[in-house]
Prior knowledge:
With about 350 residues, this protein is α+β, with helices and mostly antiparallel strands. Helices cover about 45% and strands about 15% of the residues.
Amino acid sequence: MTVVLTLAVLALVAIAIWQLTKIFELSQLKADQSRAQIANDNDNKNNGYLLFAFMVFTYLITIWSFWKYSKFFLPEASSAHGAEYDYLMLVSFVIIFIVQFITQFLLHYFGYKYRGKEGQKALFYADNDRLEFIWTIIPVIVLAGLILWGLYTWTNIMDVNDEDDPLIVELYAQQFNWTARYGGADNVLGGANVRMIDIDKANVLGLDESDSYASDDVIVKELHLPVGRKVNFKMRSQDVLHSAYMPHFRAQMNCVPGMTTEFSFTPITTTADIRKNPDVVDKVKRTNKIRAERAANGEDNSDPWEYDYILLCNKICGKSHYNMQMKIIVETQEEYDAWMKTQQTFSQTMASVQ
Length: 354
């Protein structure tokens, strides 16, 4: 890979030098020679047609991309706030594409209509108060509306409180893995500090052993969430800036060393139910077809794939950033309770290593 990158850089440098040489040669042309380089009416007309062709190409490639790659989009949101989040994004994109269509059409149309012509002098207005007011006030109103709507949506999403008996879960980030901690039977997280980490005693998160609330905490490497119950996440980082990103739930929050950040959402679709979603079924089918072809060729990473919710790191936190993920399982309250009973508490783990 290093050799390929080196060759690519050398090729780009060679092209840059060649282009600079051409520019230098053109700049040395005499006036009578450069006069031959002036575009005539036919050149300007052809350039105008090319502008239109490029505009059509841009529109067609955009439409084709949506048709071709929309199958890679995430399925419908699996959190209570996700629908509002997705609707806000949809409206924003619709406005962006409408504005893009109009402005690009005008840009290319005017480029053709007002192309250079022999003996024709360009007419321009130094200023036009009415026109400037229109193209200023319309973006101001639209952007102000989107910003206020976004702030309102963000305020609702970030309403982290203890109402409705939320489940308390800590997400602990470190290069290059995630660890989750539950509050246990009392649903209260014990005190913790990175200075208290003791690998030999299995205190991997630096829990305060003298804190009674920490004794029943449960530390796991797979995140289980009961459907329909609000979850308040407390997030910490041991080393560098990470970002807890759960795309299926439209949730993301930075994990900052030295401080605790928070995010809250309510999962509304179990893992079993999302796997029945037609878009998900099609995605799994397509993916496993590719993996079956790889398996036939004896390639790695060819085992059948099953759709899962995942927790990712959305900050480039180091060389193994791509591998920093945790499986999330959303299940019924009964299934969650049964799973929790099989987990060891912090005090049980500490006792087993002493």
